[in-house]
Amino acid sequence: MSSDPFHPSTRRNFLRGGTTLLALPFLESFGFRRFASAAEKEAAPPKRLAFIGMGFGVTRETWFPDTATTGTDYELPDGLKPLQRHKDDITVIQNLSNQFSNEAHWGSTFWLTGANRYAEPGQSFHNSISADQVAAEVLGKETRFTSIQLGSETADTSGHGPGLSLAWNRQGKPVAGLDNPTLAFHRLFSDETMPLEQRQLLLQQKRSVLDSVMENAKSVGRGLNSADTDKLDEYFQSVREIETRLSKEEQWLGVSKVQPADPVEEPREGLAGAEEIKLMYDLMIAAMQVDASRVFTYRQPVTSLLQSLGATISAHNMSHYQPGMRMEASQKRDRKNSELLAYFIDKLKTSKEADGSSLYDHTTLSFGSNINSIHYLTNCPTLITGGGAGVKHGRHLVLEDTKTPLSNLWLTLLQGTGIEVDSHGDSTGVLGELFTV
Fold this sequence. Notes:
The protein is α/β, with parallel strands linked by helices.
């Protein structure tokens, strides 16, 4: 093998040909670029997408606007009142649903994917790629973190414990998240204390193990039946994803993390509920300011939020509300969520880009849940804001088809952000209503 670092060989073959780890140039052919050209630096600010899942739906009697009043002249109901100052910059959409959702206890599992759980014959669970990860494949090429998944230590839903996020990869496997503000803070803004040489050695060891695993898997592949071959192909794809992550890690190995102009202080231990959500919003804003990532998901806590509001009820019990204490707790939670969301939008609007525009102008933010309320799975509560996808805001839209695929919205926002994709999940088309008045 040529010693020239620009020799046209693959990264895997390069590794096998030597015993030391040398950094190959990260050519665009590999999907990575570390340094922007002068022209790129003068280009328009990057597009960003953020998806915030509130979980357990809403209080449908007081969160959804009156369906008889659509367009710009609608009134914000009690659950959305704290967003009044941003009314001209938000859009509330009704009649979006995931046609395959039939089990409320799966919570946010299919919120961003629109997948059919039973799509694979003989299997009781199947998922597909989430909208954020579709965007990350394009928007994440130039940033340190391809995407950022935030979650909560509170296991609020069946099958969703700490560390799990709203994000799912192309194989329909969950993408791990950062489940508390302290972890997120250090991941985003703390530089490594380990010497560079030691980190390089660790990466080399990881690659060596990966190559050995791949060779062993290939030897096993001979003589397998069709079902096992499919499983092995899925395994190979997972290995390739690990390889891509290692390449990304190498790309940024010697680059210090950029600090925002207004640094976020290290979170104190024990933050929970409303304070935790607010700090996660601060961390997302700071990450956008330094362009650490352009794609975000945040699976919010619910039980700890209720506790921070003085309620003693669990999220699940609250969701089965009736008039009285449970419904009051649900309504209180709705208002606090809207209050915190208004705070997040405030920060998006006041955070300036180099060209004088705001983060808000180039960000698309989706806020909602896969559940309406209780165990109802139609008319998923959906609110969007931000100027990144070109949506005409300030309106209440009630779609004519009462079971319009939620994935139609994700497809619309992806295309509006510049992601070239023809379909997503169970989508049937884009929502043209979002771009016309």
